[in-house]
Each structure stands twice: as C-alpha cells, then as structure tokens.
Amino acid sequence: MADFPPVPLTLDGSCLLHQFFRFDWKAWKARTAADREHIATAAMAALKDLERAQADGPVQTAVYSQLGHKGDLIFVHFRESMEALNQVELDLAQTELYDFMELRHSYVSVVELGLYESSRKTYEAASAKGFEMHSAEWNAEVETSLKRGAEAMKPRLFPAVPEARYLCFYPMDRKRGEDKNWYTVPFAERQSMMHEHGMIGRRYGDVVKQIISGSIGMDDWEWGVDLFAEDPVVFKKLIYEMRFDEVSAVYALFGQFFLGLRLPVEKLGGWLEGKL
Questions:
Q1: Which of 274, 232, 275, 276 is nearest to 257 (CA)?
Q2: What 3-state class would DSSP assign to 127?
Q3: In the chain, at which end, N or C, are there fewer CB atoms within 10 A of the end residue's CB?
Q4: How much is the pLDDT for 2?
Q5: Distance between CA atoms of 20 and 138, rounded to whole angstroms?
Q6: Does pTM surpass 0.90?
Q7: Digit-coded pLDDT (tens) for 148-167
Q8: Is 170 a catalytic residue?
Q9: Residue 52, Cβ density class (10 Å: 0-12 exposed, 13-18 middle, ≥19 buried)
Q10: CA distances (Å), origin 194, targets 126, 156, 182, 235
Q11: Which residues touch 274 (CB under 8 Å, ≥6 apart)?
Q12: Helix axes 233-242, 187-203, angle to 10 degrees
C-alpha cells in the first residue's frame, strides 16, 4: 500500500444539522396561558411540517429533551443538501417559539461511511490493471467502485432519524500530535485498527443504532457520532469498551457529550408546561 493514496475512500450521504438550545423559561412563564397555548400549537404545526417530507415518509427532523446543564432542547435534522438544512434554520426562526430559544451550540456534518477495506481492494484492482495513480483511468476505476458502493449502501447513507428513545451525540478527532499522529500511520495499520474498532460496534448492533458523520472542513471536529438506543446505559457500556481498543486509546480525542430523551412533536405542548 506504500504506493497507494493514504486517504481511505468514503461514501457520503445525508447532510446533518444538530442544534442545541437553552429555553427561556422565565420569559415563557411570563406569558399568559392563552399566549403559551397559541405559540405552542403553532410551533408543533411547524415542526410537524419539518418532521417528514410526506405523511408516510421517513423522519427527517427529531426533537429531544436534553438532560443536564448544557441546554434544554436538541433538534436533529437530516436533509439531502446544505441548502435544505439552511432552510430548516430559517423556517424555525420564523416561529414565535424561537423567540424563547437561545442557540447554545450546533454541529454541521455529512453522513459518512469509511471504506478502509474496500479502498484497499479498489486501489489494488486499479494498480493491477496498470493504471497510474490519479490518472484518468485510475480515477474512473475509483468512481465506478464508489457508485457501486453508494447504491448498495443507500439506506445507510440516507437514513431516517431512528425512533429510539435516547440520543447520545459527541464530536471527535484523530490525534495529530508530534508523538501520536493518526495521519502518519501506514494505511494497512489504520485499516487493521479500524476493523477491530468496528467489530466492537457490531456486537452492540442489536441495541444501538450508530450514525457517523464527517465534518472535516465543515465544523470544529473531524467527525460527529450519533448513538440511538432505548436504554441510555448502553451508551456508557459501548463507549467504555471502545476506549480500550487501540484506535480510541491511542489516537482518539473526544468533545462534549450530549444526552437527549426523544420528545415527540405532539408532546411539545406538554413539555412546555413541565410535563414529559
């Protein structure tokens, strides 16, 4: 692999926007009950329109009641383009409820499937055909492989927001320090480590839905990780176990963790009155 590109191929899908809001409870409680009901009803209608493109379509926007001091509400949006995500931001800003919401944090990314193993096969196949690296023939071989993979992986590239009761989101990087630098590790070694890392996640596949999104050049970290499950304790178990593999133990850096409880849109009115 020394003569092949060091960069693994990726498949990219849905654009993601995470929004983390602080809610102004004092200002909200100062409004009359009639005002609160009117504002809540209008907000639920607007969120219902954002939730699905069609009545029987996949969930594209989900709301979570956030636990802890970092905020009160988490909105997660999956869309087909950055323009569509920007329109979601504008649509939400037009609601009267938005006047009570302070955006404390956000994260922009794109669903990403890393292809370490298939990258190696694709590069070797192109080389075996005598194509020079990055030549037109080489690039065409790679593009054909990516198109084939994108079609096969379409459900994973353009997922619905899972219906699970709990969400855990966190951003992460790979180390680029003088002592440990992921990006200077030979491709084959990275491939092996990522394989072992992935095997841990697969063991939790029946209880955790994981969506990885790439954010290099889009936000402050390199990846965003969404975990969805019915039992939040499983997040701790999965992440703790992963900390012991080499990829995480030696080369990973983690940002803040955010935990949310799924809040169906139709229950937002109750949440605004202090009821789950």
A1: 232
A2: helix
A3: C
A4: 56
A5: 43
A6: yes
A7: 999 999 999 999 999 999 99
A8: yes
A9: middle
A10: 23, 18, 11, 19
A11: none
A12: 150
Among candidate residues 116, 170, 204, 251, the one labeled active-site is 170
Question: Could you give the dihedral angle defined by the CA atoms of residues 266, 107, 256 and 6, in that order, rounded to the nearest 10 degrees?
Answer: 130
CB atoms within 10 A of CB 16: 25
Residues in the chain: 276
CA distance 14 to 32: 40
- Pairing mode, strands 223-229 and 209-214: antiparallel
210 φ/ψ angles, rounded to the nearest 5 degrees: -115, 130
pLDDT in tens, 91-144: 999 999 999 999 999 999 999 999 988 998 999 899 999 999 999 999 999 999
3-class DSSP state for residue 6? coil
Report residue 212 as tokens. 């990885």
Give the tokens for residue 81: 């383009």
